[in-house]
Amino acid sequence: MFLSLPTLTVLIPLVSLAGLLYSSSVEENFPQGCTSTASLCFYSLLLLIAIPVYVFFHLWTWMGIKLFRHN
């Protein structure tokens, strides 16, 4: 079963936000405890940053391929 792009566009940030809220409720020192790579909080914050960057560069590459193919 493959999910469509609009579904993933909504679903992935919501899952990431849920992970961030979960880690903020579980971690006793939330903002300061996010610097260790062993904590779940670090990866939930990293995921929030990495997803938009990945989407941007994926769309940039796709647009470059489309422009190259049509010119």
UniProtKB/TrEMBL annotation:
Which BP terms in the Gene Ontology apply to this protein? GPI anchor biosynthetic process
GO CC terms? glycosylphosphatidylinositol-N-acetylglucosaminyltransferase (GPI-GnT) complex
Signal peptide annotation: 1-23
Q: Which UniProt keywords apply?
A: Membrane, Signal, Transmembrane, Transmembrane helix
Tagged with keyword Lipoprotein: no
Q: Name one Pfam family in it.
A: PIG-Y
Q: Where are the transmembrane segments?
A: 42-65
InterPro entries linked: PIG-Y (IPR029164)
Q: Keyword Lipoprotein on this protein?
A: no
Protein's recorded name: Phosphatidylinositol N-acetylglucosaminyltransferase subunit Y-like
Instruction: State the organism named in the record.
Output: Delphinapterus leucas
User: What is the gene name?
Assistant: LOC111177840
